[in-house]
Amino acid sequence: FARSQQMSYQALFDLTPPPRPGARALDIGCGAGRWSRLLSERGYQTVGIDLQPALIEAARSRYPNIDFLRTSVQEYRVEEPFDLISSVEVIRHNPFEEQLVIIEKIRASLVEGGYVIMLEGIGSDPRPNAFYRAVDGWIEAFERSGFRNIAVQRYYYNLVLRAVEQ
Fold first, then answer.
1. CA quadruple 80, 85, 88, 93: dihedral positive or negative?
2. Do residues 14 and 41 lie in contact, with contact meaning Cβ atoms separated by under 8 Å?
3. Is the separation of the CB atoms in 136 and 149 below 8 Å?
4. Which residues contact 29 (CB under 8 A, 6 or more apart)?
5. Rounded Cα gap, residues 93 and 130, in angstroms
6. How far apart are the C-alpha atoms of 102 and 71, rounded to whole Å?
7. What is the pLDDT of residues 113-139, one digit of tens each?
8. Residue 164 — very low, low, confident or very high, per pLDDT cuts 50/70/90?
9. Are 109 and 85 in contact (CB under 8 A)?
10. Residue-wise burial string across 78-116, b where 16 or more C-beta atoms lie within 10 A, e elsewhere
């Protein structure tokens, strides 16, 4: 799962231009800091946000050069807009209307011409905290907020499903 996700993330990241000096990145739902680390290593001044205190503390210990904050994207106050915003498997954990609020917040937090890398589940999930959209639904939700889709990169974490579909 992690390898498949990493390959998809990297493929999307490779479509973005190299960061300019002083470029900033926000990693929404940073967890243990995997994507924050990648963004930092690629030249971004990176901020990671997450709601889990233990994960934030662990990330701070591992990556002291990255600013990690315990907050939700909805409550995070952006002091200076970001050049790139990353979100991996986070937005779908919010009800559909709240997803639109988050997407608007992301749009308002970007510099003009900035980029978003988003990996999200599609389809359906029986868990009560999963609010999936189809690929076209995600694209439509982002376009409604003024985004333009550049690329879609699929990845699979269910190896059985992946083997059957090939």
1. positive
2. no
3. no
4. 49, 50, 51, 73, 87, 88, 89, 90
5. 5
6. 13
7. 999 999 987 766 666 677 888 889 999
8. very low
9. yes
10. beeebbbbbbbebbbbbeeeebbebbebbbebbeeebbb
